[in-house]
Amino acid sequence: MNELSSSLLLPAIVFLPLLAAIIAFLIGRNQLQGRINICFSLAQFLLVVLTTLLFLHEQTYQSERYVIGGWGAPLGIDLIVDGFSILMIALTGLLTLLITLYSASYFSDKYSASEKSLRFWPLWWLLISGLNALFMSADAFNIYVCLEIIGLSAAALVALQGSRAALEAALRYLLVGLLGSLFYLFAIAILYRSHGTLDLMQIAETANHSFPDKVAMILITIGLLLKIALFPLHFWLPPAHANAPTPVSAILSALVVKASLYILIKFWFDVLGATITLGASQMLGALGGAGIIYGSWCAFRATQLKVLIAYSTVAQLGYIFLLFPLSEYSMGVSSFTGSASQAAVYFIVAHACAKAAMFLAAGNLILAQGNGEIAQLKGIAVREPLNVLVFAVAGISLIGLPPSAGFIAKWLLLTTAIESGQWWWVIVVIIGGLLGAMYLFKVLSLAFSTDPAVVESPTSKSTPQVSNVMTTVALILALITLALGFNAEFILNISNTVSEVSGI
Amino acid sequence: MFNTLNIEYDSPAVDKSALSLIASVLVAGFLLAVTITIVLSDKGHNTGLAPLITQNIELSGVTNPVTAVLLNFRAYDTLLEIAVLLVVVLAILPTRDHHAPFFKRIVVSKKNLVLSALQRWIAPAVVVFAGYLLWAGAHQPGGAFQAGALLAGASVLMFQSDTYQVNYTSLMARVLLVLSLVVFITIGTALIYFEGSLLTYPLAFSGLLILLIETCATVSITLALASLYSSFIVSENTSVTDNKHRTIK
Amino acid sequence: MTSALLYAIAGLALFAIGFFGVVVASHVMRKILALNVMGVGIFMFLIACAKRNPLVVDPLPHAMVLTGIVIAVAGTALALNLMVRIHHIDQSSQEQSK
């Protein structure tokens, strides 16, 4: 405990990206720009690995606090890490490293996007810093500030393309995000009024079945569902994720929606666990189920590659929401323990890696092809075999075929559903898998069909060659997805620590 | 409800889809009724953290409780909040004009009498008052944000007019924009070395350090707010000249 | 009924009015303004919370409001900027079509 909580590590994980943002802003456009940012991402990754190893080394799997300013909980702000947040921070560190490598080439002079790098890098690092700060915050109002850093920088990154569609998607994303945060802030005001503290643990100690707590929980749920884009509130997600530059799409789908989900899980199971009812969790599950079917169907009907992947995110988020009805419900309190939470944690990790890989591969295919029409992808496997391979591997994980991380996650979900006797979720999961197979094989069959006329079309000659770095990064992510499938115990061990910690 | 984002000048005020209207009336009414009942029914926590803050105010280095909360007890929040402001500045600032000077004076033939009088009489007074607000923040209502907002108003008056111009994308402006965040992070992490924890001010220097951070924050906030304002003005001006250009062609 | 309670209810009413505006208004500018009204409602509620006990003023909600105002300014500025940029794109495409 003492090693981690007294060390520099926790604040450094937040401050290093901030420093990177400041330096990226000051140096402006420069030949060294890409290299400096890669150095920062390596340093960030090392920090995260060190923190994770220290946490695992402690072996106690308790939540650990870092007291800022020496004041302590109700007066000051504390940082807190437990198994779940360590896992999210580690995931952020890994994806930051890989996507930074990808972006360094994506925003290099070779491609048309290079002049946007000036704005991209500082915003990118601020986004990472906001994510890290969010995952280790123990203070309700501090979480609001972190949510705003994430929401504003994500919207600004979506607007980076500058086209009308991108600007409109960014504006819609921003307005929805602001609305969601305002609901959250309102709930915090009510919680502070009735509990007299902003520290999550202390709120949890005094939380009960009272009316204000229930209203606060409802407001938090509505606000965060808006930001997560669960089924009826998903309308902003496909345009925002489809119109962003490729590295931004990857991080938005992989981590930014998960950040709000992390907060929701924290409030739902840890902080205000006393207020939730069986009906409410069944309703969230039903919305998730509807999201699976609807998202998969829209993905099947999409004509643009990135829109297809964005709708697939809507569907995959639905799977994670099955956590809420499937989690153990005893004595009127449901807790983030047992196989349902393991399935959800595994799903979050598997989806983050697979979806990031898929977006990066799709970005490469679009660069090679010149536009994002699915119909234009005919025969692309001949020219870009590696990227199509990455797309296929990521797709296999999203459908849930063995051997992949997605398979393990779905397997855990199905066994939990059968064990708890809620067989209807099994049907939803199976239909979702079939629809997923439909939309992904639609793309793959087009990519593998050989049509000499298309292969030798002159347009393909004029488009730039995809750099090796960008393909390699996507490949590494796909391999990680596969490796997670073979090596399930690693994640499950960390998520076990989650279940022990979150009893509070 | 966000599916159509309308930006026409003379568009209808209300979304035509009546379904969302009725639904929202019901939701808003329900929300209002529920929350009012909470307010009326709940006794809750009567004093919040007030007693704890009063106990510790001696240790914070300032006597104004709000400043103590903002810059000592919950300084981490304030640091991240400055980062939020920086996010928006980064998103909005134009990316060109790196090599133009930070500050330049334009010679104009036509003088605006009201504007120059305002610049001469109001702006210095505002600057003095902002300095007072910054200083007063330690023991009375006031502080970096109020002072920064006032100064931003003064700089809009001075520099967005015809006579003077500030280039917010020059290196100097960028340094000043990130100044407060750099100082905040430097002091915060340096204190880990000296005091053992992030942002733990030593008692003897806490007042001084808070004043230093607040002064830098005032500069950065002034520049951030003024640059946000200028981004709207600049885009207006360029569009106007573009239009003229087109008509001449 | 104390005056603090009255302010709290007024804050809640502002929140509801703002939410109504966000949903019903069609113009982006109105939506942004409505979001600001919602924010002001929350701030007012917080200020009223600070004065629940007539003898003690709680400074923490005041600090939360100050932080919240800066964040609201930032969000509003970004939204307005995006709106203006969309407007410029529309204008120039209209001129080109003429």
Structural summary, described in words:
The complex is a heterotrimer of chains A (504), B (249) and C (98). Chain A is mostly helical. Helix content of chain A is 75%, strand content 2%. Chain A has a domain at 277-504. Chain A has helices at residues 2-6, 9-27, 33-58, 83-106, 117-135, 140-158, 164-195, 200-206, 211-228, 237-243, 246-271, 278-301, 305-321, 323-326, 338-369, 380-383, 385-399, 405-419, 424-448, 452-455, 459-462, 468-486, 488-501, and strands at 64-67, 78-81, 329-330, 333-334. Chain A has a two-stranded antiparallel ribbon. In chain A, β3 and β4 (333-334) form a beta hairpin. In chain A, α4 runs antiparallel to α22. Chain A is globular, with a radius of gyration of 22 Å. Chain B is mainly alpha-helical. The longest helix of chain B has 43 residues, at 206-248. Chain B has a two-stranded antiparallel sheet. Mean pLDDT of chain B is 78; it is low at 235-249. In chain B, α3 crosses α4 and α5 (113-136) packs antiparallel against α6. Chain B is 68% helix and 2% strand. With 98 residues, chain C is mainly α. Chain C has one domain: Helix Hairpins (Orthogonal Bundle). Chain C contains three helices and no strands. Chain C has helices spanning 3-24, 28-50, 59-97. The longest helix of chain C is centred in the last third of the chain and has 39 residues, at 59-97. Chain C is elongated. The interface between B and C is large, with 62 and 54 residues.
